[in-house]
Amino acid sequence: METKQEIVFDRLVYSCAFEKHRGYEEFIPEHFLGFQLSGETHAFYAGAKTIIRENTIVLVRKNQLIRTTKYPSKSGSYKFVSITLDKEVLQQYALENKFDFENRYMGTQKLFFEPDDFLHSYFLSLTPYIDKTKEVSPRLADLKIREAIELLLRCNPDFKQILFDFSEPYKIDLEQFVNQNYMFNVPIDSFAKLTGRSTSAFKRDFKKVFNCSPGQWLLNKRLEEAHYLIKYKKQKPVDFYLDLGFENLSHFYYAFKQRFGMTSSQIK
Q1: CATH superfamily entry for domain 174-266
Q2: How confident is the model at residue 165 (pLDDT cuts 50, 70, 90)?
Q3: Distance in angstroms (rounded) separating the CA atoms of residues 14 and 238
Q4: N or C: which end of the chain has fewer CB within 10 A?
Q5: Alpha helix (H) residue ranges in 62-187
């Protein structure tokens, strides 16, 4: 059975699966709060991996590239619910509460934790909307987001540094970033935004660092990694082509032969 992903209201998303499901690359433009009701989510981001286990809450920061694999529980189901903490509501909340942004959060991405009674009850309160036994008005949707903000700050006041950082992404080291994220098959525009650059500035800076276009470099990098996996790890393209950012096997086989002058099966 295929994964069911349903937008209950514009900022509440419910995902359900009954078989292992590999997700696609996602650019996360806004913070979101998620609750793993059953099963596990294995997430890959910036060269790191983490596991979100059952009955765990995760706060995912905005401006991230993430790929997930969904694993059903022993009972046979995977259920995950997430609510987006969008910028407009956060800015209004900060204004009303006279929050001043002080320091940028410098912690790691692993912002998941066992829910306290309040957070657990909060996600249970979303069940009627998921089950469609209640309708959600725009006002009520805003109130549910505000409630999530209140509970997060009660759980950890330091989250204020994450939620109310409205500054634009600053320029980061381009070479380090692309070497950590080359396997994500997302538009160049997304790469540019994540490095704190416009698309034109990203392409210009990329040319200075690598002496070629982003598209050329990304393809070569993925093919070199594929060559290594085939020759030294004895892996088959069908097992890794998606993880390296190729859209399909035909594209991979064609590009591989163009780059190395032989098929992947001829590599010894």
Answers
A1: Homeodomain-like (1.10.10.60)
A2: confident
A3: 30
A4: C
A5: 87-96, 117-124, 127-130, 138-155, 160-163, 174-181
